[in-house]
Amino acid sequence: MVNDKFQDIRPYIEDEIGPALSRIARHPLLSSITAYLFPDKKPDEIGHFIATLKSVDEFQSLVMFSAIKKIITDTTKTLSYAGLDKLKNGKKHLLISNHRDILLDSGIIQIIFCMNDIQTSEMAVGDNLITDSFIEDIARSNKMIRVIRNANAREFYNSSLILSQYIRQRVSMDQSSVWIAQRNGRTKDGVDLTEQGLMKMLEMSGEGDFVKDFEELSIVPISISYEFEPCDLLKSKELYVSRRRKYTKNPGEDLNSILTGIMQFKGNIHLNFCKPLSLEEIHACSILEKNERFKSLAEVIDRKIIESYQLWKNNYIAYDMLYSCDKYSKNYSNQDKQSFISYLKYKLSDIDGNPKEMEEIFLSIYANPVLSKERVD
């Protein structure tokens, strides 16, 4: 059993899962959710079925797997992945990926694990998304770890320490792999960068030996590449407002982003599981000054994610349109370009704000991954 000091943040365990699934099964919102995810089943049928489940593994394999698989089937053309052989030795890892969609980034990883008989990971999720007891029950029954976001300085420090200790215990003791995003919140502008703060948080639970502390976490970077950026229009609007004033979320905005990310067409999706950070890479960072160590380690993760990121035709088209050139024209046809232009016009057809600026922001979201690749290369 996990130490009780982790009780408020860890997934449900043992005798907690049965009551949680019973609460989910009885909740009035379940019927509207299952109507979309399981259209061939009666809402009461799903509720009764969930109430019979006894474990997290059953809930994931018999309910969540089917739900995520339907989303992928309905909103994507293909789902591909590479590098999974690095995770098939039974060793547990800290999985750090770029972050483009609130729900699907981690959800798709779990689907891939299920399809390849790999134990699913626990997933770190901001508590701003856990808005009520119903969402909390679903999240913690699905191996989700609560990350405290809104707290004063002392509370934030203490919660970060607890989170760091929990992650280290789960990974270093080979109990479970853990997924966490490379940054607090999704990448809005298409530039994937690992926050130094994440590296510092992970070090909080170490013994003070930089190399040993990070080597035992066995960090595996993962790149997630969507052909059509989840919530691209919503992200464009947020970036437009942020150029003028501090952006403040409206009530229910996170839920709207979750639903948009689920429902929006995503085209092709590719995930690449990179090699774990090597002892040599960690040691090269350790010889630097303290703050530079964390910066350098974050850059190692960034390089692996960017190098393995799958660029799509949309990225090349957006780059050439944004910079009024044909640098990458060999990567797409004129028909591809016209199709993307039609998509762009459709997305921006009903917007408030300067149309030219909104177009520039929208194109940047798709073009920036190409820029990132150029910088790394």
Explain this structure.
It is a single chain. The protein is an alpha/beta fold and 377 residues long. The chain folds into two domains: 248 residues, Glycerol-3-phosphate (1)-acyltransferase, CATH 3.40.1130; 63 residues, no CATH class. Helices cover 52% and strands 10% of the residues. It is built from 16 helices and seven strands. The chain has a seven-stranded mixed sheet, sandwiched between helices. α1 packs antiparallel against α3. It is globular and about 60 Å long. The mean pLDDT is 94.
Helix amount, in percent? 40-55%
For the report, how would you describe the main beta sheet?
7 strands, mixed
| Order of helix and strand elements from N to C terminus | HHHHEEHEHEHEHHEHHEHHHHH
Could you say what the CATH architecture of the largest domain is?
3-Layer(aba) Sandwich
Portion of residues in beta strands equals: 5-15%
Mean pLDDT: 94
**CATH topology of the largest domain, anyone?**
Glycerol-3-phosphate (1)-acyltransferase
Determine and state the CATH class of the largest domain: Alpha Beta
Structural class, by secondary structure, is alpha/beta
Count every helix, treating DSSP H or I runs of 4 or more residues as helices: 16
Identify the strand order in the major beta sheet. Answer: 1-7-6-2-5-3-4
Q: Gap between N and C termini, in Å? A: 46 Å
Gross morphology: globular
Low-confidence stretches: none
Total strands: the figure is 7
Number of domains: 2
Structural Rg: 21 Å
